[in-house]
Every structure is written in C-alpha cells, then in structure tokens.
Structure to design on (329 residues):
C-alpha cells in the first residue's frame, strides 16, 4: 500500500521512522512534503534517506515542489496528513484532506483542526467516495479511544464522555498539587522540560482539550458541533490555595472535558475530583472515561502525545485500511 506523508514535524518524522524500521508492514512511502519542499517517487522512497536529508538541509525533497504536487500526482493510496493544526480554520490540512478524499484516496490524520471544523462534511465525502477517513491520532496520542467508540464498543449506547485531554495542563496541575508550586512556577518547569510551548495559550486556556472533545462528541453522537459550541475554562486562573482547599477534602483538581447530549453538556473546565477517581492521573498522561449502557464505565489511559506514540495510532489506522480495503491501487 502506497503512503504519502504531508508534514515533517515530530509526528511526521515518527511515522517515517516506523515505516523505515518496519518494512514488513508493507507500507511503501511514495510521497513526502514539508513546508518548503516535496519528494515524489511512485517506485518508493527510503524513509531514512528522507529523515537524513531533512536533518542536513531542513528540506525533505526538491525546493519548488509542494504538497499540492503530491496530491496532483495521485501516486498514493493513503494520504497521511500531519501538518500543524489551525484551530480556527483547519487549513491547510482541510484542503489537503478534501482533495484526497474527493479524488478517491483514503486519509489518515493526526490533525485536529479539520476534524473539529468539518467532521460531518469529511465523513460524508469519504462515504460518497467509498474511502476511509481515520483519525485515531487526533485524540489521546497512543490511546485507542476512537477505535473503542467506533468498533470496540459498537452496540453500546454512550451516555457520556469524560476525560483528561491535555498533558500540558495535567503536568502543571500535578506539580502544583504535589509540590505546592504556583501556576507560574509549574508552567516554567513544563516549558523547561518541553511539555509546554513558548506560547502555552492553546493548552492552558483549554482550547486544545476542547477541540479533542468536539472530535470525540462528533464521533460518538454525530452532533455536528464545533469549537464554538464548547464552554471553555482553562487552568491559567487556578491558584495554589484552590488546590490546598481540594486537598483538605482528599481531593485534587484536573482539567476535565465532558460531553453528554442527555445532559446538554459540552464543557472543558477545572473540576475537583476525589483522589481515588480514575481520571486523577499523573504527569503528562491522558485518560478518557466512556459511560455506556452495556459495558458500564470504560476508562482508557496512556500517553497523550509524543512522536512515536502518535505514530503508533497512525500506523494502526493505516493497517486497518490495508486490511479492510483490499482493492487499493
């Protein structure tokens, strides 16, 4: 099965690393693009050569070629879209995904923006073209929560989704709780360790968690909601005193995303939880609790980010497509 990868940040590099290390998977790289160059070869491209070239020149291929050239070439069966996320518009990934699906190609993505902005449209386009749209890597990194909703727990009625969906916030809150650090001190530590961006707004104000909640809600209930429909409160206003008050009740605080059509709930906000609660997890971990009618409460926990961890979810989606769509070109 032929694979084209758009985006060579941490996730894209992780995907190429896995493709290079596991040739037995039968996933052949035929196109790759970064922000300034591209490389297309229908006969196959060695992933390690791409990584070496990117390291040496900061380009993956020929200057003057782009993602559009790969899309025009049609020299792929599955597009792997892992460019940076734009929460407001979903672009340029939304255009890439529309183009690939519209021309009869499968798509696997870790890109949250397009799914948050146009989930229903993209699913309908995939159905019309008879191709797959897979996006396990958009929520929870290596945690197979999309698989659980769409396949593992099929036949269940879902009452609610509740989760810790942002590792940066969880790390900050863990450090404030464990060591009595102020928000500013914990954020500085998270930056130093690479868990927080130089501008952490997207994480600490709850926007990243809200986008992931939108994706989960639309996957579970096909609600057609967007980021504008989510009530969002971040952690940037939390104080050490608030955590101390929670500790006095043998509780702590976590940033929690909650969705439940039955309760009209679509919210991201700090919540006080008993320390024994399944969602009181440490450090940069993520966790999602699915409340169902048959299986009861199912909680999944794991690494919510990371190059190889996210690549794990992408590879899983690719192999799912390979095994289901046996007539790939």
């Amino acid at each position: 099965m032929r694979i084209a990868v758009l985006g060579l940040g941490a996730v894209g590099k992780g995907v190429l690393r896995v493709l290079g290390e596991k040739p037995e998977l039968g996933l052949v790289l035929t196109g790759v693009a970064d922000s300034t160059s591209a490389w297309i070869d229908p006969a196959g491209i060695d992933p390690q050569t791409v990584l070496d070239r990117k390291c040496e020149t900061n380009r993956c291929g020929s200057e003057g070629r782009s993602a559009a050239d790969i899309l025009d070439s049609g020299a792929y069966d599955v597009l792997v879209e892992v460019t940076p996320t734009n929460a407001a518009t979903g672009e340029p990934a939304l255009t890439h995904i529309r183009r690939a699906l519209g021309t009869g190609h499968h798509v696997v993505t870790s890109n949250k923006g397009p799914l948050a902005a146009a989930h229903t449209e993209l699913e309908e386009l995939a159905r019309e073209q008879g191709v797959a749209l897979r996006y396990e890597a958009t929520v929870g990194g290596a945690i197979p929560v999309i698989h659980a909703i769409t396949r593992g727990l099929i036949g269940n009625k879902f009452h609610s989704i509740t989760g810790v969906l942002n590792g940066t916030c969880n790390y900050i809150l863990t450090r404030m709780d464990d060591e009595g650090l102020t928000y500013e001190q914990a954020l500085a530590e998270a930056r130093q360790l690479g868990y927080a961006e130089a501008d952490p707004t997207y994480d600490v104000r709850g926007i990243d968690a809200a986008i992931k909640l939108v994706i989960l809600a639309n996957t579970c209930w096909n609600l057609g909601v967007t980021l504008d429909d989510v009530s969002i409160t971040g952690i940037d206003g939390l104080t050490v005193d608030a955590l101390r008050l929670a500790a006095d009740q043998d509780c702590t605080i976590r940033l929690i995303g909650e969705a439940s059509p039955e309760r009209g709930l679509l919210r991201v906000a700090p919540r006080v939880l008993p320390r024994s609660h399944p969602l009181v997890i440490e450090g940069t971990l993520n966790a999602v609790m699915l409340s169902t009618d048959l299986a009861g409460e199912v909680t999944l926990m794991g690494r919510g980010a990371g190059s190889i961890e996210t690549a794990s979810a992408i590879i899983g989606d690719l192999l799912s497509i390979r095994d289901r769509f046996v007539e790939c070109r």
Summary: The domain at 2-141+308-324 is CATH 3.40.50.720 (Rossmann fold). The longest strand covers residues 251-260. The radius of gyration is 20 Å. The chain has a mean pLDDT of 95.
